[in-house]
Amino acid sequence: MAEQRLYQSAPKSAAREAKVVDRVFMHDLVLDVEIGVYTHEKGVTQRVRFSVDVDLIPAVHALNDDIRQAFDYDTIIKGIKTIIARGHINLVETLAEEVAMLCLAHPRAQSVRVMIEKLDKEPGAVGIEIVRGKARV
After folding, report:
1. Cα–Cα distance, 76 to 102 (Å, whole number)
2. Is 117 helix (H, G, I), strand (E, B) or coil?
3. Element (H, E) at 3
4. pLDDT tier, 123 (very low <50, low <70, confident <90, very high otherwise)
5. 99: which residues sit within 8 A by CB, 6+ positions away?
């Protein structure tokens, strides 16, 4: 009886509990962005800091040390630059959603955390952090 109680209260094996995930991240990228809804924010740029974490399904097969087979953080950086190059964006929420969609378009991407901070708005930083994921089938 005591043996059975010990078995039931013993921690589950680490292998069964461990969630295997790969994470690609890009933190503290500061770019000049035309963003804001107020008149004084139109036609000017503000410093905006981006931090993005993307959780990926681990590669089933080795990537063979080939960058073309990986989800590369340069993909995130180039994507952000492409989004902001299109012109003025009113809301940081809109920008965060677009960055999240860009990352989730990759077939291995499962979820993404996007934090965007406007650095020139007030002392310190103001912004938004969102977490998005793909619907499980």
Report:
1. 8
2. strand
3. helix 2-9
4. confident
5. 50, 52, 76, 79, 80, 83, 112, 114, 116
d(CA 28, CA 116): 9
H-state helical runs in 18-132: 73-85, 92-104
Strand order in the sheet with 109-118: 22-33, 46-56, 109-118, 126-133
How many CB atoms neighbour CB 56 within 10 A?
Answer: 19
pTM of the model: 0.81
Do 96 and 114 form a contact (C-beta atoms < 8 A)? yes
* Element of type H or E holding 4: helix 2-9
Question: What is the end-to-end Cα distance of the chain in Å, rounded?
Answer: 42
Q: What is the pLDDT of residue 89?
A: 97
pLDDT digits (tens, 9 = 90+) for 38-61: 999 999 999 999 999 999 988 767
pLDDT at 134 over 70: yes
For residue 118, give both structure tokens: 């406007």
